[in-house]
Structures are given as structure tokens and as C-alpha cells.
Amino acid sequence: MNKQPLRIALFTGLYAPFLTGVSVAVHQRVRWLLQQGHEVFLVHPEINDQYPKNVGKRPMSGLEELEHFPNFSAYSFPTKPLIFYKSLPQPLHYRHWSDTKLLEKFEPDIIVVEEAPQMRGFYSLFLQGYGRPIGVEYAKKTRTPIISIFHTDIVAYIQYYLGNLFFQLMRPIIPLLVKQSTKVYDVSLFPSQAQLQKYQRLNCIRGEYVPYQGIDCQKFHPRNIIYNPIPHDHRPTILFVGRITAEKNVTQLIDMFPLIAAEIPDVHLVIVGSGPMDKELRRRSQKFGSGITIWGESHGTELLGWFARADVFVNPSVTENFCTTNNEALASGTPVVAVVAPSTSEQVFPGVNGFLAQPNNLRDFAYKVVTIIGNPQLKEEMTQQARPSIIEYDWSACTQKFESKLYQLVEGSKK
């Protein structure tokens, strides 16, 4: 590295062993920054006995993979389970711990806050959370640059969970909340053009697009077929990987299965993941016997094998931002059928590497899946196009752009 390494303080509301796309992305980002020689102070949620026992036992990459770096340090802030999702954490109030004191001790060149609204308490509608913007007090006092990184489309989650009627009542105050949550940071980064434009219309202050949300294209690869979890099962396989929650619309996959099976009788739907709707999903899938497999969580080479094994990856979620699992499937050479969501058009190119379906339209979604599986030549063409279509989002390339943004902000603050 020609430039002087940076001292980076990174706050995150989600990290291993809490299983989300944010947790995985934060870990990858921190590891890459450490490998480049930067000094990173990671402030992450603690795991305690208030959470379900299986949460702490997940074989996820986390602190143990970073602790051998001499330029790494960490602090686990006190948490309690999120009111509406007991497997995910919320920070305790600032009366219980101080972000400012942590920063005064570390003296960073720049502060990065991942999922800043969640840290403050937006996820719990301010019933929980830190209660004030993370890192801002110290940044103002010392004139240290501070950035916010958006992952989740929080407005879409509010609309989904509270319903259109309540959302319409809240609509006048949403721009005020977005403005309040973004104006305190020097810049708020968004991983997709669509999400940035949406939040700019909602009064986002100093928002910018930076494609920081990459995946490891060497790790997710078609050659992972050697890890095929069901090597003796030759049925055409439809795969979903993600959290089993209401906003992911996973139950729609169960509802559309008969429509697909009517055209592809031996089709096999595999759902990989866990979440609060796990029991309901298993109950509703029982009548389809071996046609639907609720696999549960998958990690390591087994998960890599699922992505490479699938014939089509499906994603019915209308609340996705720049979805990591979509990219992981494409990097593995698997076509994707996803619904039109804020950024899916930046990942899925209809007729090239998959199809986009109309939200909440089971027949349209099923038709798109059947079109791929039922047409071997089209499927082969999409398989060949899948990986090249997403290679620009390789983790190394994306994080270099993120690193360049950090240097730009630090140099700007000195001037």
C-alpha cells in the first residue's frame, strides 16, 4: 500500500453469530481492510444468554478469524433481543455504554457506522436501541469524518409489517425521520442506485452510491458442484436461501409450488435458512411430501454446494436491497428468478441471467421458473451468462472502491 494505513473505527449492529447478510458483509469488509494493513477497531453486539441457544452455536466466520491480526481490536457492546425478532440484537441505551469514550481511547482517522438507523433504534420503532446517533458526538468534537452505510430498506420493512393503511398515516413523517438519520453523517453510502434514488426522494442528506456490497467470487463458483449436498437426487432443483421471515415472502414459494409441479412433475423445492416462521413453513410444506425440503441452516462447503447444485435460485422478497444471495447464486452459475424490488434490476437481467417477476403474482413467478427449467437450451445460456453478469461485484473490487472513499473523506477533512 502506497498510502498511509488508516485507523478505522467500525460500529455494526449485526455481526456473527447473528446470521444476516449484514453480518457476513461486515466480517468480509473488516477482514479485507485488515489484510490491506489498516488498523480496525470493531464495535459489535454481544451474544448473551437472553438469545436462543442455537444462535451462539452457529459455525460462522467471526472474531476468531480476525483476532490473529495485530492491527485488530474489538469491543462487544451490551445488547438485548429485538422485540419483534428474538434472534437479533438491539444495543442497550447510551446510559449503559458510551460510544464517545470508546472513540476517545482509539482516536480513529474515520468512523464507519453500519446500519446506523438500526443502532439508534429504528428497527424497534424507538422502543429499544442506543437512543442517539452512533459516533456523532465524538466526530463533531474532533472533526473526524464519519459515514453511515445503508444495508436494509427500512422504509420497505415499515410498509410491509405495518400495512399500507398505517404506512399512509406515517408517510408524512418518514422524510423527516430519513432526514434526521442521515443529516448527522458526512455521507450515507448506498449499495444500489435504486435504493439511493428512493431515499433521496425521502429527504436523504448527502447520500452517495458506492458498490461496496460485494461477494467472494472465488468462493462462490460453479466448481462447487463437487460439494453437492444431494448427489444422488437428480430432480430439477429450485433453491431459496435466506431468513425465514414474513418480509422474505417465503410462504409464497409453498403456495406457488403446485403451479410449478403441474408443469415440472418431479421438481424439488429446497428452502435453506431459519427464522421465526420456520414452524409454519414446515407445517404448510408437509402435504407436498418429498417435493419440498425445508433444510434448515447451512454453512461452509455444504452451502456452497447448494448454490452450485440448484437449477434456479428463487427470491420472492419485495423488501430486498442489493441482495447478497442473488449474487452468490449468479456467481455460482445459477440463474435467478426474483420479484421486482428496489435493486433486483441491477442484478437480474431478464432473458440473460434469469427473470424478474411481478411482486406477489404467484402465476407470473411460477411461469418464469418453469420457462427456465422447461427449456434446457435457455437454461444453459443463462447458466453461462450468470457468473459473467455479476463478476464486477467481486468482493475485492467493491472493497477497493470503499477504501478509496475512506481515503477521500480523510484527506478532505484534513483540508
Give structural notes:
The chain is α/β, with parallel strands linked by helices and 415 residues long. It has 15 helices and 15 strands. The strands form three sheets. Strands 3-2-1-6-7-8-9 form a seven-stranded parallel β-sheet. Helix 9 crosses helix 13 and helix 12 crosses helix 14.
Strand-pairing-aware structural class: alpha/beta
What is the CA–CA distance across the termini? 22 Å
SSE series: EHEHEEEHEHHEHHEHEEHEHEHEHEEHHH
Number of extended strands: 15
Q: Using the CA coordinates, give the radius of gyration.
A: 21 Å
Secondary-structure topology with pairs:
Layout (H helix, E strand, L loop, with lengths): L6 E6 L8 H15 L3 E7 L17 H4 L5 E6 L1 E4 L2 E7 L7 H8 L3 E5 L1 H5 L15 H7 L3 E4 L4 H17 L3 H9 L4 E4 L2 H9 L5 E3 L27 E5 L9 H11 L6 E5 L5 H8 L6 E5 L3 H10 L2 E4 L8 H8 L4 E4 L14 E4 L4 H12 L2 H15 L4 H20 L1
Helix pairs in contact: 1-15, 9-13, 12-14
Features:
415 residues; alpha/beta; seven-stranded parallel beta sheet; six-stranded parallel beta sheet; 15 helices; 15 strands; globular
Briefly characterize the structure.
38% of the residues lie in helices and 18% in strands.
